[in-house]
């Protein structure tokens, strides 16, 4: 009997004898790869039926031989290869879509780490981090706000996109530990979260801090489906519902 992984196509076509089918089913019970392949082939029943009615590729039927002869092993192997390639294409397409979506959201927690010099372990800044601050400088429209009660101040840089608004937040005067979100509030009251992050205990943008890292502001980017003219204001909120600062658009 051939390798069990190579038998999935023949099993789907129904050309295994009883002993071979029983052996493959025992293998199938513990093989996720074959189960996935069989699931793909199960949705191709019309094509499989048509293939099963074709003569063996590469050979000519003898006089009186039925045209419904079993497909050759090469044909079965080719069918499985095509299914595998189709699945690989789906995975690649899904990866590209995720990468494209990530490119729209500038920064995020990784950019926060890089802009501020890394983690507690002393890692150095990465190229991704600098892009949030660079984008902040390049975006044309900036609005600012501060809160005397919390001591936080923020500036949001915005740029209109076909899909909505690209934005980068510059946040100062915030000490942790906290977990926060940047929220865009539409003129119609709709609320959309652009991003979230953690504030370490030493904070961001603290002028009299002893740590150089704590003196640096936070830059974090995000995006919203709201157009700039649809946004009423931005809010920096903690996860427990406290508003640190509001920035009117």
UniProtKB/TrEMBL annotation:
Gene3D superfamilies in the record: Anti-sigma factor, zinc-finger domain (1.10.10.1320)
Domain Putative zinc-finger: from-to ranges: 8-35
Signal peptide: none
Alphabetized UniProt keyword annotations: Membrane, Transcription, Transcription regulation, Transmembrane, Transmembrane helix
Keyword Nucleus: no
Keyword Transmembrane found: yes
Pfam families tied to this protein: zf-HC2
Membrane spanning stretches: 94-115
Record's protein name: Putative zinc-finger domain-containing protein
Organism: Streptomyces collinus (strain DSM 40733 / Tue 365)
